[in-house]
């Protein structure tokens, strides 16, 4: 299937930030390997990008909460001779629940989707990039990584893992000329919150929600400029500095009141 084309593999490409990251990469001439578990949306992406940017999009319908999905993706790329130069770990899910009330399978899914699969993808595709002394990896964290938050007690810590992992992995991969960047968006207007109880219209009214195009563009620019971390938006940059300085009990009081977790 391949000649000297440059391929970018984007997980979570079917919507939101991942869709726009795919578009940013297509604009730069990359052929896209678009992965998610919604085939119809992937087909839309393929049609849109191929028509607009004269590139090809290979769609892969895969559930990344499956433990062997990273290895399956590597094999798929090898079997089809797709030489991946850019890896974007974007796929994510979100839900509000106290830990003991969360569905058992959902707990396993979020930990696999946010931690195991992206880490294994970094392991597998990172090794290939290191051998070629060329490559780019963008990992999605979140500004929630800065703050344990009742109600999203599983979501935020997975993003903290991704933040720390990406920082250390970046230092290792530098030795092999592979650039690794951590993208930490704040609230972004996507379908991620469709299952949560975040007051989206309130955040929009305050101007605190960014659009996914802006976030995607900032992340891709940071990746190609070799930045360690990208926090899109002035307000989000300030939050990340201020949050660790606020006493824990104040944060807990505010987050309890806003997160829908049982009051004492
Ligand atoms: N939106 C925000 O405010 C925000 C803030 C900080 C960080 N982030 C992070 O940004 C990333 C993208 O989120 P988004 O806001 O763009 O949300 P989104 O529009 O809901 O996109 C999530 C993507 O992940 C895919 N995905 C979910 N579960 C999957 C699974 N089991 N297997 C394969 N693909 C799966 C979705 O595919 P399907 O639609 O096919 O399920 C979709 O393409 C996530 O990692 C999220 O944590 C978002």
Report on this model:
The protein has 264 residues and is of the alpha/beta class. Helix 5 links the parallel strand 5 (135-140) and strand 6. It has nine helices and seven strands; from the N terminus they run E-H-E-H-E-H-E-H-E-H-E-H-H-E-H-H. The protein is 48% helix and 14% strand. Bound molecules: NADP nicotinamide-adenine-dinucleotide phosphate. The site of NADP nicotinamide-adenine-dinucleotide phosphate has 27 residues, from helix 1. NADP nicotinamide-adenine-dinucleotide phosphate (NAP) binds next to helix 1.
Please name the CATH topology: Rossmann fold
Provide the list of bound ligands, each named once.
Answer: NADP nicotinamide-adenine-dinucleotide phosphate
- Describe the largest sheet: 7 strands, parallel
Instruction: Give unreliable regions as ranges.
Output: none
CATH superfamily: NAD(P)-binding Rossmann-like Domain
Count of runs of 4 or more consecutive helical residues:
9
Compile the SSE list and pairings:
Elements (H helix, E strand, L loop, with lengths): L6 E5 L4 H12 L3 E6 L2 H15 L3 E5 L7 H11 L4 E6 L14 H29 L2 E6 L14 H20 L3 E6 L16 H6 L6 H13 L4 E2 L3 H9 L5 H12 L5
Parallel strand pairs: 1-2, 1-4, 2-3, 4-5, 5-6, 6-7
Helix pairs in contact: 1-7, 3-4, 4-5
Bound molecules: NADP nicotinamide-adenine-dinucleotide phosphate (NAP).
